[in-house]
Amino acid sequence: MFKDIHYNEYTKEFLEQLPKGVFLTVKDGEKINTMTIGWGNIGVIWSKPIITVAVRYSRYTYDLINHSDEFTISIPLNGQLKKELGYCGTKSGRDVDKFKECGLSAVKGREVDTPVIGECDLFYECKVVYKQAMEPATLDQIIDEKCYSNHDYHVLYYGEIVSSYIKEK
């Protein structure tokens, strides 16, 4: 069902889908949540393959990721799940079970306790190796005014990619 891949084998596809939305999933004990993200990066830091994601303090995901210190990224590559990405980007896991509401399946992770979303095609499992709260005073003023007029800043999470795989057709 799944085929292991080198973490950078589908970087182009990941980065092309990211602005359209991908799923960031976290699990803390029995609590599981997924949210849509459109910002992030993939690369090498500290000689490790890293995905960087940004999570706002106000998000339910923020509480979960800080307790679990891991996350998964699930990426639809064939234009599917647009409605689900929209829903998961506008509803809070504090209020609704996004998996149930969207009919998404939580598939057990291979190396982490956090699941991936079975309806997607490309998957990354990550363990947080560093987190950094944004320092508003060092942010470009134009970006600050455009993206943070409500002062709801992000924490950046650097996740070491411990497993990457694609769904076999």
TrEMBL record:
Positions of the Flavin reductase like domain: 19-168
InterPro entries hit by this protein: Flavin_Rdtase-like_dom, Flavoredoxin, Split_barrel_FMN-bd
Highest taxon of the lineage: Bacteria
GO terms of molecular function: FMN binding; oxidoreductase activity, acting on the CH-NH group of donors, NAD or NADP as acceptor
Similarity comment: Belongs to the flavoredoxin family.
Protein's UniProt name: Flavin reductase family protein
Top-level taxonomy: Bacteria, Bacillati, Bacillota, Clostridia, Lachnospirales
